[in-house]
């Protein structure tokens, strides 16, 4: 049964921050060629404005250095890799969304680390040295990239201090935040600082406490940052983590709740809310990330999240990532929009499609948005997701949509992701699940990763055009409809019936 | 109704010369950037061995030069453009199939020209000067590219002397051929020379006469060359030529006839037959060239032509072409495999698909070939064509094919051209038939030009695999079936049902 | 003997329009790959704003087309090549400086042509058809590239109507100018039109007559255009033209004279003067163009021309050029800044060096300019030229220049063209004067074409720095002096004497 | 005073293995973009056949993995990074010279590590697991790259077991060598294995003991490997190590001695000797590596080493290197032929020049080699080095060399490195010693890094040509002399005196 929609062209602004920011594996990985190729690819096709990841101060980037001089430790800062990484970002038209962390070993108060790559999560042994490092780094960045540029780079203090990423208490985090925020403003009062960068554990307590702390101590805060994941308890089997998901409305509710808490505090009421990480599962070996299910699931989030947050940074753009070790196979459940060998996953298209959405929202429900641009283009994005582990599948969702026409003729192009199309993990399975790929296999997978695509003419009738959209279970669909000038008449000798079936 | 085919793996060699040679617009166009981009694209995807076109000696390439010295004409040769063109070819891994012609104005005996670009088709005013030019050119090529290389470049004398491309008589052509062939052998006896390069007019008379002439006068001939087109009488309307086609068997019959005549003469009985031009229509503004009909129609030719000829050179690889003037629109009925803006046409895929055929032919009928490679890959190519101007369409042709399996598991990938897929001219029509393209339109057309593609797993049963092929009217289909090592078991913790529908 | 210059940092604006415009071979050549590679190279290194050449309306670009329809001629316009050419220009960040000409054969009133490539120079047979073509072309350009862009493209009517480029009289040119200028303004009043595009023959008469004509008939004119060459009578020997040159002051005087005449007419007094062609010799087979003499000679022009003209377009950027036929050897006396195989000639560096001049002119004489930028960089360019055919050579010109220092330390880098350096034609002669190049030879010549280059530290003393410049005969020299922050002290352990001679 | 050399064209084969192998920072660094760019650059210009470095089995490459399965450790191998690295090598036309080491943490018997990047140097806790890993890795490589390819990759067991790179005794190394060598031969008897990979400490004892051990136990050995450095005791100051050098004859003597010991043992007498590492200093922060001194010093080694060893692998091709931490400045005394930002150092040219040496050695002394090719090209390389810390400098070494001429005319091209030319570290010092570079600075340094270059004609006289070579202290010079066909006469109208000084 088709839903009938008779839409007017009058909509409201579509709050769409889909290209604002994207997550990345640790900074040190940005030195890699494969990483850079993925980033270039993603920027060419989607074009994010900012990129955020961990590890700026870790020893593989190596900023903080101590050597002995005259028998005493002598501190200096090594920006060789930092400059190379940020140069790469700028070349790719993406700006750093700076996350200050984790702890250089020489500055650390303890040994606790996180991840395969062993990020030290302990508080600084000496807060003055930490502050000096922060200030030296920012000062260096301003010298190299210019003040006008660097004040556009938001700065977040640490990552998820409410769980194992921080070996200190809540108060210790507040101490870190305070001295860091003040240091940042000392370097330049126009630099933007935010926190508390928490994930969804004990959230309300942390938010209230943090806002009170900032308010009571007059600590600078320019934006509120937090994370949202939508996975239930994990089942760990070997290298894999298997999980079920909450509904995407879970995340929308979290955003609403955060915004409501913010509204209770003058200091943040009018500030931006940045979701500096989000995804379905929070685990980089959970199969969900490679699936069309995820593409449709995330689409639902993107359709509404912008009403509550000004940034939601998908964690992450690429499977060049090492938190749980080096990927043991091309498809392994990694976070990336792009798998290794530069193969786009279904969710890559969720971001590509939403980056093409019009700036006016004409219609939205649980499965579709209808948007429009000033130049008369319509952009429809549909999705349907269902976890098939219950052995069931959803019926296709079908729409017949009538839209106002300003032109006599339109060009409609549709792209479909799901099933046999744009589903590279399935093709990889068909190929026998090779761990690494030959050139030939990589080529096959790149081809396979493309959506189904077809186009057609649409003629207006009585000032309206009519389009269908059919969305199968665990599929993502986009239809763009462009107004067209038909020039057939300028070919006066053009006899369509002589064109072997051309329409 | 499906045809059932139970095939054994035992076939015969597939005589497949699809990548041997391809045609090109006049040599001077090879200087152009757009031409070079198309050539690179075609070589990357198909990889022809040779390229043949007109105009080597025309004044836009400018080899023959006369200036005044001490009051008398002084001849010299200018290889500036020739070297640039042939350097480009070599860089693109394609060798010249040299056609000697047409006539430099300063050497011509008359004014008659052919084409928008005005190739002079008159015999030389002075045969000695012609011979000198031929020898100087070949000598120069040997110096520049090395003898071992240049003796691999076949040399054809003139083009279609049996119609308006030659202002002389048959005897005058034989005179030209004789002095040219002898000159070539003087430069190096291992250089290969051939003719008579005729098209399908008065063919039998020309072939007999030519072979007798060579035999009786002991004139060198290393290969026989001729052309084959399959179009009926044209209807000319404005810039377009509308034509109906003979059946492809028309061309196969021409090849057989030619081979039979060759068999009557010792001097050519064991020589190669090179079809140095072929296509459906011989006119560069005939819409047929842009259609899926043509893709299927040409496929039928390619399925069998190699049994009778050792080369059949599709005329031409690119729409960078000016015989009837500068193309007035992206799609205009040009010969090219690739339209301007580097958009592959349906027939491009006919060549790409046949370039992937296996070297063993297991089965062939009027709609399909089934081939196999030593590495166990099967390659099936199917086609179905019908001129829809009678208002009819053919029913799909369907096969169920059983093939011997050497492995337990296979990977099958299918590509379909026709209808909504791989049919860029239709998308161009949907876009309103723009004459030139914006960047955005060019992008859309490049995407649209790709075939439909999908893949699947195939499991062997009782040492056999079973595959279906369904071929709609005016469609071209290829299915490749690769043996696969399934590695799923090496992921001991891999629980398929946890993979959200992955199969 | 050294000239001693004690300079203050206070200068005047340097009127430097060196990168405003550059000349090109006919439009049709812009389709070529070699042409495009040269253009990209020149734009990367020098970066011109506009490009101007002949042949927009010639039949190889093929805009004007007539076919028969219902027994009558039917006119249409083919923008296939025009769009490709202008797309290429825009991609290379260079804008068309449109020259309207020559005459499509189908529109021509006669057969007279010019050049190897046979540009028809006769007036239109039908001025209405000419005007229609101009309007259709401009309208198309506005549709494709946008009005805001196209109104930045100056439009010149015809080329050198005062000599053999125009088969009509002066009055007939004025007629052409008038109807064309009015047509342009009809398309958009903000489009800029200019003329009379004359060369230096009967100049004063033409200028006065043209300005009077425009004034008396109220004909639009937005800028005055003319050409300047500096060669004396030619001696023609075979393919070469040998010429002596006037002094560059000859051109400067021409500019002054033109400006003085302009000052006598209200309609052009405040308008820009565009030298839409200039060079030493006006002949594309005159050896002077390949020499270091020319580099120094043109430098003298560039040092002052901007005081009188707002554009001076060197004729031409590349040896991809066919006015006297296809180049018969790499070095052949062509106009280009870049020889074939993308080898920069000495004069290439004249333009590169002047493109780096500072915007403030501190000192200028017959052999040198001293300029400065806001960021404290000094840029000195020196030259010395002498035609050595009198068997003499000039002594080096030497300067010792004292400049105010704002920093304690400077970095000085010098580039020298002439003699053994940056003189590819000499290396080509050393290689035996090959007509076309092997890859190896092309590599050698590209390396050879680079200037001598060295750098050094300069320390300020009493707030001043002192630099030497020595300019040998037929050499061009540039010295750039950058202020530097010395960071040696931040390497506390750096012991210079341990660095094996590092200073 | 010039040395006069009258040379005949008769020489002996020049044993020149300069391009056989080159060293690299640890394998994991090969994932980096900067590393890959340097490698591509070096391969384009020099073209090494093999590359050798540490860290194949370290945890950043991550081959060896243990996870828990059913409560027990389950071993698997992760070739994700290994394949990527070796794919890159193959793409760059360089083959791995495999060094088996160091120890994965999960396999290690202890905690001892070496370098900033902490390579574990302890013997395996379980030799069976080590052997399994070696065999699995080689088996995988053969599957991926093919047996015919992989048997061309020499395999060396461990690195410098005679010093701190091995936490075991000599006997323990022999044990490791034996089980590893046998495992290799089990995988494929045609795989090549070698050792003992020692540096110059206790050399004679190690060589004798190792050869005896292999002989007595019938252990496979296909080539002998060792290292050679030429530095005296270091003085460590902050981040720098200052050292004086032995004379290069020190290394030549080491090679002779090694060869003499090899000659005493049947099992290695006819085997190749591979110097798998060599350089002046063995320390990556010793300024010598950045200097023209080093370029000349290493030239002396290259002129003779091939008489005693079949491979000598310069340690290393690039400053992408981390043994003593992340480089703290562009020039910091790193081993690389290429500094960061892809700036070639003087010693880069030593390798480039020697890669162009002819295969016939006509003359050799302490400062020069004269070589010749079959095509008649002469190649002369000269050098002169002196450690200037004694405040002295050597006089230039000058030669006047007479060589047999087969042609009437030659083309001579000379390149000079030293002083103001090809000395990027000096330019970097002139720029103020910036730690990281702006784009502009990187460009300046790349330009500065090029040698001085000039060319000239050389005319034969009495069947001989005469060339000069002048070599200043701490300079490197190459002169190539090519036979030339002078074509001036084919330009009959060419009047040299009209060419403005062209010779």
Automatic annotation (TrEMBL), chains A, B, C, D:
It comes from the Bacteria. Keywords: Glycosidase, Hydrolase. GO terms for molecular function: xylan 1,4-beta-xylosidase activity. Its EC number is 3.2.1.37. The active site is at 160 (proton donor). GO terms for biological process: carbohydrate metabolic process. Residues 4-465 form the Glycosyl hydrolases family 39 N-terminal catalytic domain. Belongs to the glycosyl hydrolase 39 family. This is Beta-xylosidase. It comes from Herbinix hemicellulosilytica. The lineage of its organism: Bacteria, Bacillati, Bacillota, Clostridia, Lachnospirales. The gene is xynB.
């Amino acid at each position: 049964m088709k839903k009938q929609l008779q839409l007017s062209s009058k909509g409201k602004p579509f709050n769409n921050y889909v290209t604002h920011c994207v997550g990345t594996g640790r900074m040190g990985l940005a030195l890699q060629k494969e990483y850079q190729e993925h980033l270039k690819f993603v920027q060419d096709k989607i074009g994010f404005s900012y990129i955020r990841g961990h590890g700026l101060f870790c020893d593989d980037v190596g900023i903080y250095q101590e050597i002995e001089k005259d028998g005493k430790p002598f501190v200096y800062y090594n920006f060789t890799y930092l400059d190379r990484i940020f140069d790469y970002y700028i070349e790719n038209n993406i700006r750093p969304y700076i996350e200050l962390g984790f702890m250089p070993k020489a500055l650390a108060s303890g040994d606790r680390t996180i991840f395969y790559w062993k990020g030290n999560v302990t508080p600084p042994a000496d807060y003055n040295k930490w502050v000096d490092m922060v200030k030296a780094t920012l000062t260096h960045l301003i010298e190299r990239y210019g003040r006008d540029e660097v004040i556009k780079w938001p700065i977040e203090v640490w990552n998820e201090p409410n769980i194992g990423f921080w070996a200190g208490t809540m108060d210790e985090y507040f101490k870190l935040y305070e001295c860091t925020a003040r240091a940042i403003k000392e370097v330049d009062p126009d630099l933007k600082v935010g926190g508390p960068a928490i994930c969804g554990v004990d959230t309300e307590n942390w938010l209230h406490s943090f806002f009170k702390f900032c308010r009571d101590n007059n600590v600078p805060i320019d934006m509120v940052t937090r994370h949202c994941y939508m996975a239930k308890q994990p089942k760990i089997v070997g290298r894999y983590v298997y999980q079920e998901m909450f509904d995407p409305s879970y995340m929308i509710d979290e955003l609403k709740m955060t915004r409501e808490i913010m509204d209770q505090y003058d200091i943040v009421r009018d500030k931006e809310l940045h979701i500096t990480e989000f995804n379905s599962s929070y685990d980089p070996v959970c199969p969900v990330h490679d699936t069309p299910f995820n593409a449709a699931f995330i689409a639902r989030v993107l359709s509404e999240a912008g009403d509550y947050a000004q940034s939601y940074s998908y964690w992450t753009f690429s499977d060049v990532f090492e938190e749980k070790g080096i990927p043991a196979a091309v498809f392994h459940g990694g976070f990336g929009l792009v798998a290794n060998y530069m193969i786009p996953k279904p969710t890559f298209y969720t971001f590509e499609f939403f980056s093409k959405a019009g700036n006016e929202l004409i219609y939205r429900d649980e499965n579709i948005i209808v948007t429009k641009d000033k130049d008369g283009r319509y952009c429809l994005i549909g999705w349907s997701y269902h976890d098939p582990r219950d052995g069931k599948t959803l019926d296709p969702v079908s729409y017949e949509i009538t839209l106002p026409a300003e032109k006599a003729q339109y060009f409609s192009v549709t792209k479909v992701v799901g099933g046999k199309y744009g589903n590279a993990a399935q093709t990889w399975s068909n190929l026998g699940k090779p761990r690494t790929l030959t050139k030939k296999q990589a080529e096959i997978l790149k081809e396979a990763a493309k959506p189904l695509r077809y186009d057609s003419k649409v003629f207006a009738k009585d000032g309206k055009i009519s389009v269908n959209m059919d969305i199968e279970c665990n599929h993502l669909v986009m239809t763009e409809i462009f107004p067209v000038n038909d020039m057939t008449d300028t070919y006066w000798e053009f006899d369509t019936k002589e064109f072997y079936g051309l329409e």
